[in-house]
Amino acid sequence: MRIALFVTCLADTMFPQAATATVRLLERLGHEVVFPPDQTCCGQMHINTGYPSDAVPLVRRHVRVFDPYDVIVAPSGSCVGAVRHQHATVARRAGDASLTSRAESVAARTYELSELLVDVLGVTDVGAYFPHRVTYHPTCHSLRMLRVGDRPPTLLRAVRGLDLVELPAQEQCCGFGGTFAVKNAETSTAMLADKMRHVLSTGADVCTASDASCLLHIGGGLSRLRTGVRTVHLAEILASTEHEPAVRG
Amino acid sequence: MNRPTFLGMPATAPPGVGHLRGDESFPAAARRSLADPQLRRNLRHATTTIRAKSAGVIAESPDWEQLRAAGAAIKADTLNRLPELLEQLEAKVIEAGGVVHWAADAVQANQIVTDLVRAAGADRVIKVKSMATQEIGLNEALHAAGVTAVETDLAELIVQLGDDRPSHILVPAIHRNRAEIREIFLREMPGVDPALTADPSALAAAARRYLRETFLSTPVAVSGANFAVAETGTLAVVESEGNGRMCLTLPRTLITLMGVEKVVPTWRDLEVFLQLLPRASTGERMNPYTSMWTGVTPGDGPQAFHLVLLDNGRGAVLADEVGRQALRCIRCSACLNVCPVYERAGGHAYGSVYPGPIGAVLSPQLTGVDDNASLPYASTLCGACYDACPVQINIPEVLVHLRAEAVDARRRPTAESIAMAAAAYTMDHPRLYEAAQRASRLSRVAGRRGRGLPPPLNGWTASRDLPDPPTETFREWWAAR
């Protein structure tokens, strides 16, 4: 299958290993990955901070760039959530009916990685090898906007060598929330403290999730406290094999 | 029902009266509560307990999702024809021997209630816990007129005796523990036994002794309403302690103040809400006391009944297509109990009688977003509130909508708005975007492990590292492969 990669600006700039892992994984499964180079950012930060008008050109760009593709994947529940649940609203608010319907059409062809693997490609065992004790944080937008449900843990359970430990109170937000982490830094940190407490209680070496933004937050806290627990994107674990272990794994 | 303004738009709730506005922004107020370990422990314990209890009774309801959809549909229909239903309610209440008053705002409502109490010749009223009376600051208005208002809900009494503010819609003293409650009772409750212990049953017994005497000797009661049935003129109050039943039946005069959105079209509609409310709210299958009354019944219960219908900004909320769903709220507080922000920051941080996620969307709409501009940002948009809401209020959607309003309401560009515009421009020009990626890597503004970013980004680096920028971006890797 020919799959267009919506890399997301955060993974492109700060976490390329999550994006390269997505490419390696899909190619290993026998699919063709294309990367439309004119893509930039979905505009979620603008929309969620109160600047939907600034987001209009970004939505227009995203729709134009991805409209030619039948299947689009992103290694981020949050950015797929923005495409699926916000782009049409922004277009409608701007009074652009044609953009609205095209945004809805692109949204319907856009998948978060675990959705693509399980629902579209019909695979739960991707042949990965990752010999570590891992706990999985579901991330709010994957959990409640996309309803990915047990797709990621199902994929993780099929990884050879991987010891999956359930994260207590996993459905609670880590406190990132985009600009919330800066505007309400102290409340955000209080939430992060509890998330880290739960991660540490599992005894896991690795905390994984399908969103680089949440991992940026949780990982930033775990690193500051020198906990020795690493954050690794779900795509990196699924791309990891005996011959080609995850870059940071 | 609305005070018309010169533009013909419905008015927002007036400032200087009632409790819809805080003295400081959410982040500033939250800073204090976050530093209070007792408060943090009380909130964590209480919200975790209610969450688990509620989840249990919801899980056993096979038609919960259908009930939610029905509740949302009934409320949406009600809001679509609110004037007609309110007029029907008014006619039915009058027909049943009641008197109906219309209050455009808190000032008018306080005046109406104060005049009614004075006309009844009372210097003391007993109160059923009511969000609407707190919203308008009724107790303070009565106090200024020389009337003592006694709260009879146990938690509300604790708050009142402690000269405190409620911090939760359903459990207003959620920020207090037993030891603190004992101290408040010993200090403030008339006639309290000095040997009082912090045992919950002893605390409840002390309150019961004090309240029982007050119930029997006070001629006027003031209540709110959970529901008002337009087709019959029936008012409904649900509660757990029986104090409400006392207030609604013992006094000679009953004054009920309700927000206009509390009306439902038919008696049959109550069936849906009386299933939704207790399960979402207290985690019970059915609430202990459901009191319903229609006007006045000669020789039985209060012989004078007044219904005060309150707008106080609700017309303005109704005028907002996205925001009006907040008026579906049945004040169950499920959204507070599941909110990770509320659990840490507590109710006082929201500055309004309506705390938590629903407060973050309701208060700024009632007052106008200028007066509560930090509240729409007091959320990570995690969506737990939307899942928990028994009437399917899409709180994250309204929060995002209000953020845009808060930005639009600012008259001058800010550092943030300039940065946002610049970011959007950069993101819309891939060559600029790539240049910015290279610049972020070269300049290493983050410094070593991201410490010491400039304001406002230092909010991040105070407690979190930033990873070192990678040696190549994804698109560089892609181009080179």
From TrEMBL, chain A:
This is (Fe-S)-binding protein. PANTHER family: LACTATE UTILIZATION PROTEIN A (PTHR30296:SF0), UNCHARACTERIZED PROTEIN YKGE (PTHR30296). InterPro entries: Cys_rich_dom. GO terms for cellular component: cytosol. One of its GO terms (molecular function) is oxidoreductase activity. Residues 3-82, 134-218 form the Cysteine-rich domain. It comes from the Bacteria.
